[in-house]
Amino acid sequence: MVKKRKKTTFWKKIRFRYRLSILNENTLEDIFSFRASGLSAFLVVVFFAFILISLTAIVIINTPIRNYLPGYLDSEIRRDLVDNTLKIDSLEHVLDVQSRYFDNISSIFRGDTVKTPVLPVDTLSVSEKNLARSKREEEYISNYEEQEKYNLSSLPASNTIPENIIFFRPVRGVISAKFDPRGKQFGVDIAAAPKESVLATLKGTVIFTGFDTNTGYVIQLQHKNGLVSIYKNNVLLLKKQGEEVVAGEAIALAGNTDKSSTGTYLHFEIWFNGLPVNPETVIVF
Prior knowledge:
Elements: H1 10-15, E1 17-23, E2 30-37, H2 38-61, H3 74-110, H4 135-153, E3 174-177, E4 188-191, E5 197-199, E6 204-212, E7 216-222, E8 227-237, E9 244-245, E10 250-254, E11 265-272, E12 275-277
Antiparallel strand pairs: 1-2, 3-4, 4-11, 5-10, 6-7, 6-9, 7-8, 8-10, 8-11, 11-12
């Protein structure tokens, strides 16, 4: 009887081990040989394919190559572009402000006219302005006065300013009206060129800004040691209430809002411990 051959299953076929030998052609000596099944060869190919795909994906994700893939990380790229644009704009603004600041400092040391900084000021006409104080301004002034009244009361009632304080000249010009407290002239009038830059005489805080029909735009600064400086008859204010200013910084533009006068001038006052001080005793005009 002829014996029937057993059918070889797929699992046995794939696990059947083959031997690969490398022989010397002349001597037929077995130089190198190894045995492997179809399953092991398939697993090796799969393993190396997985490694290759993984390395390729890592390279694409972590390098700029990903930007060349269509639709990949578009939202992230747009967000980065917007952030970088905003940062560049902010840096340009800071550099511009610093450049103008150093230009003004150089002009002060040379004795030249300080360049007026380009600031976003309100240029509406007087009739369009709301001259009444807002509730926020009233609260700020009230809180500030409440905090500072004890400091002022603890100081002696004297208008003798310490000699170690150096004042900046508020504007270039000549004295046209001198200090006369009996005639209710609590400061000096300084004749100046139209729209001349008005400078802060000391470092301080803006405590009041407003408009008066007789004295035009008014700005007041609070300084250390109970000192207050007042600048009247301006045509434009460059600072707002609550802002910090440094000595020599432009805060307004001098003008001619006094109807009784025909020339441009700045009315400048200094108050110390609640008493008016003759500006000519502390500043050389």
